[in-house]
Design goal:
The structure holds 2 protein chains of 2 kinds.
Chain A lengths: L5 E3 L2 E3 L3 E3 L21 E7 L12 E4 L2 E4 L8 H12 L5 E6 L4 H12 L6 E5 L10 H4 L2 H14 L3 E5 L7 H10 L4 E4 L3 E4 L1 E2 L4 E2 L5 E5 L4 H14 L4 E3 L6 H10 L3 E4 L2 H4 L3 H15 L15
Parallel strand pairs in A: 3-4, 3-16, 4-7, 7-8, 8-9, 9-10, 10-15, 15-16
Antiparallel strand pairs in A: 1-2, 5-6, 6-14, 11-14, 12-13
Chain B lengths: L1 E7 L3 E7 L13 E4 L11 E9 L4 E7 L3 H7 L9 E5 L14 E6 L4 H12 L5 E6 L8 H5 L3 E6 L6 E2 L7 H4 L4 E5 L2 H14 L2 E5 L15 E4 L2 E4 L6 E3 L8
Parallel strand pairs in B: 7-8, 7-11, 8-9, 9-10, 11-12
Antiparallel strand pairs in B: 1-2, 2-5, 3-4, 3-6, 4-5, 12-15, 13-14
Classes of the chains: A alpha/beta, B alpha/beta.
Chain lengths: ~300, ~250
C-alpha cells in the first residue's frame, strides 16, 4: 500500500486530503456520512476575532457547474469557538486547522494568538482572500504590500504552521504567493473563490444580496489548476491546491501541477462522503501506477 | 432509492421511492430530503424537497415536486425504476408536542407548499386529531392529491382564478372567519405565509411555518440559506425549515 502521508513544515497529514473552510462546517455536520479519521485534516469555518452575522439573504446562486456564495464570514467569534467548539473538534482523530479572517491586521493577530494557545490546532489558514466582506478579507490578499503586512504581522506572533489562502482575483498570483512566502508563510493554499455575479433577467435584479459573490465548484477547476501550477513553480514552500475538486482524478491533477495536498470544498455539498472517496481513489491510483509515496506525485507533471 | 411509481400534473410530479435493500429511515413531518439530479447538466447542487408522505407499509417515500426549473423538470422526466441518490432525513420537523386530541388544527398550504402537509395530516390523525386542510393555488392545476388529504381531515380549497374552491387568495377563504383554531401549520410562498402569520398573530394562535430559502449543502455547513431570526441568522436547512412565527423577524 502506498504511503499517503504528507509532511508539511510542522504539520504532518495522514493523507493529502483536507476539507476546505466554509464547506465543512466544524466537521460534525458530516459525521453521519464519513469517518473523519480517514481524512488528512479538516479546515473549519472562517473565524474572526468578534462574532459576525454575515451578509443578508440571499447568499447563494447556482451557476452552470458551480455556485456563487456571499456568506460573508458568518461565525460566532474566536472566543465562542474556543469555549464551545474546540472541546468537540479537539477530540477528532484528524488534523483540525482553523481558517482565520479579519478586518484589520490587529484582528488577525489577536485571533491567531488565541488559536495558537489551543494544543490540538496545529495550524491556521490565514484567509486574506474572502471576496464577500467589505473591509479586510480580500483587500489584503490582492496586493503584495497587503499580503506582506498581514502575513508578517501574524508570523511574528504565530509559531505553528501558517498556511495562507490566496485570492485568484489578482493579475499575477505568483507575485502574491512569493510575497506571502517572503513574509513567513509555511505554505499557501489556493484558490479561494473567483469574484462573480448572477442576474435574474426577469426581475432585473441581482441574485445575491451583495450583488457580487465568490464562484466555486467544478467550473473553476481549470483556473485553479493553472494557478497552482504557476505558484508551485514560483515558490519554495508547499502549495495546497483547491478549486473544483470532485474526484480523486481531479485531486491527482492538482498534485501533478505542484500541490503537496488538496482541499475538497463545494463538492462536499453534492456528495457529503466525497472527501473519503477521494482518499480511496488516490490510494487506488497509486496502486495502479506502482507509486510508493503520494508525495512523489507533487509537481510530477511531464511537459 | 428506486423510483417505483409516479404521477404527473401540469405543474408538478409525484415521485414514489423505495429502497431495494434498506428499511426507510425514520423521518418526521416537515423534514426534507436532498435529491441529486445527475441527468441535468444545468443542475449542480442537490434539490431540497420536502417529504410529502411516508407509506410505512409499502416502505415508500413520496415526494411532490413542482416543475420549477431545469433540475425539477429533470426529476419529473425520470422513468420508473430510475435509481435516485438522496440524503435524508434533514431539518427540524413540525412541532407535535403539546397537542391534545381536542385541539382544532389548521394545516394550510399554498401552491406546492401543500406537499409536507399530507404526512403531517397523517401523523396528526394517528394522534386522534382531525385537522382542517386549507389548500390554495393559482388554478385548479395546483390543487393536487386532494383525495389523499381527505383521508385525514376536512379539506377547504381556494384558487386565485376560481377554477376550484373559493375564488381569490387562500387567506380570504371563509373558513378562516367561520372557525377558530388552536394551532396553525403553514407552508407556501412567502407572501402567503406572512399573511397567515399575521392572521395567527392577531388572534394569538400558535403558528409554525416551513421556509424554502435557497440551499446549498442542506446540512448546516455552508450557511447559505439563512433566515433572520430573534437569535440572528439561522440556517433554514438545519434550524428550520420549520420555525415558529415568533422566532422570525418578519414584518407581520
Amino acid at each position: 500500500m502506498a504511503d499517503l502521508s504528507v509532511n508539511l513544515p510542522g504539520l504532518n497529514l495522514r493523507n493529502p486530503v483536507l476539507t476546505a473552510s466554509g464547506t465543512f462546517g466544524y466537521g460534525r455536520e458530516y459525521t453521519d456520512f464519513i469517518d473523519l479519521s480517514q481524512l488528512g485534516g479538516i479546515i473549519v469555518k472562517g473565524t474572526t476575532l468578534h462574532a459576525r452575522e454575515g451578509n443578508p439573504y440571499p447568499r447563494m446562486a447556482e451557476t452552470p457547474a458551480g455556485m456563487l456564495n456571499a456568506v460573508g464570514l458568518q461565525n460566532k467569534g474566536v472566543d465562542y469557538f474556543i469555549a464551545h467548539i474546540y472541546p468537540e473538534v479537539s477530540r477528532y482523530d484528524t488534523r483540525v486547522l482553523v481558517n482565520v479572517s479579519g478586518s484589520t491586521i490587529e484582528d488577525y493577530v489577536a485571533c491567531a494568538e488565541k488559536i495558537q494557545a489551543l494544543d490540538k490546532i496545529p495550524a491556521i489558514e490565514l484567509n486574506v482572500s474572502c471576496p464577500n466582506v467589505k473591509h479586510g478579507g480580500m483587500a489584503f490578499g490582492v496586493t503584495v504590500e497587503g499580503i506582506s503586512s498581514v502575513v508578517s504581522a501574524v508570523r511574528r506572533v504565530y509559531h505553528k504552521h501558517l498556511m495562507v489562502k490566496l485570492s485568484p482575483n489578482v493579475t499575477d498570483i505568483a507575485e502574491i504567493a512569493k510575497a506571502a512566502e517572503a513574509a513567513g508563510a509555511d505554505s499557501v493554499s489556493l484558490i479561494n473563490t473567483l469574484l462573480g455575479m448572477s442576474i435574474d433577467a426577469e426581475k432585473r435584479r441581482p441574485r445575491l444580496s451583495t450583488v457580487t459573490g465568490g464562484l466555486s465548484g467544478a467550473c473553476v477547476k481549470p483556473v485553479a489548476l493553472r494557478m497552482v501550477w504557476q505558484v508551485a513553480k514560483a515558490v519554495g514552500i508547499p502549495v495546497i491546491g483547491l478549486g473544483g475538486i470532485q474526484s480523486a482524478t481531479d485531486a491527482i491533477e492538482f498534485l501533478l501541477a505542484g500541490a503537496s495536498a488538496v482541499q475538497i470544498g463545494t463538492a462536499n455539498f453534492i456528495d457529503p462522503a466525497v472527501s473519503v472517496k477521494v482518499v480511496q481513489g488516490i490510494e487506488d491510483y497509486c496502486e495502479r501506477h506502482h507509486i510508493e509515496a503520494v508525495s512523489s506525485l507533487t509537481a510530477a507533471l511531464e511537459i | 432509492m428506486r423510483l417505483v411509481g409516479k404521477r404527473e400534473w401540469p405543474n408538478a410530479v409525484l415521485l414514489k421511492l423505495r429502497s431495494d435493500v434498506l428499511p426507510l429511515p425514520a423521518a418526521a413531518p416537515g423534514q426534507f430530503v436532498q435529491v441529486r439530479v445527475d441527468q441535468s447538466p444545468a443542475t449542480y447542487l442537490r434539490r431540497p424537497i420536502s417529504i410529502h408522505f411516508i407509506d410505512e407499509k409499502q416502505q415508500e417515500l413520496w415526494l411532490l415536486v413542482r416543475k420549477a426549473g431545469a433540475g425539477t423538470r429533470a426529476m419529473a422526466s425520470w422513468p420508473v425504476q430510475t435509481m435516485v441518490n438522496l440524503v435524508m432525513p434533514l431539518g427540524h420537523p413540525f412541532t407535535l408536542s403539546g397537542l391534545s386530541s381536542s385541539d382544532k388544527v389548521l394545516l394550510t398550504g399554498g401552491g406546492i407548499g401543500l406537499a409536507p402537509l399530507l404526512y403531517l395530516g397523517k401523523v396528526l390523525s394517528q394522534k386522534g386529531l382531525r385537522p382542517v386542510f386549507l389548500l390554495g393555488g393559482r388554478t385548479s392545476d395546483d390543487l393536487i392529491q386532494i383525495p389523499e388529504f381527505e383521508q385525514y381531515g376536512e379539506v377547504c380549497l381556494s384558487s386565485e382564478d376560481g377554477s376550484a374552491g373559493a375564488r381569490g387568495l387562500l387567506t380570504r377563504h371563509p373558513v378562516l372567519k367561520e372557525r377558530t383554531f388552536d394551532r396553525i401549520y403553514c407552508c407556501g410562498p412567502k407572501p402567503m405565509m406572512v399573511a397567515v402569520a399575521a392572521y395567527a398573530r392577531e388572534r394569538g394562535i400558535w403558528c409554525e411555518v416551513s421556509l424554502e430559502n435557497t440551499m446549498a449543502c442542506g446540512l448546516g455547513a455552508c450557511l447559505c440559506c439563512v433566515e433572520e431570526t430573534t437569535e440572528g441568522h439561522r440556517c433554514v436547512c438545519q434550524d428550520g425549515p420549520v420555525f415558529n412565527i415568533n422566532q422570525l423577524k418578519w414584518q407581520i
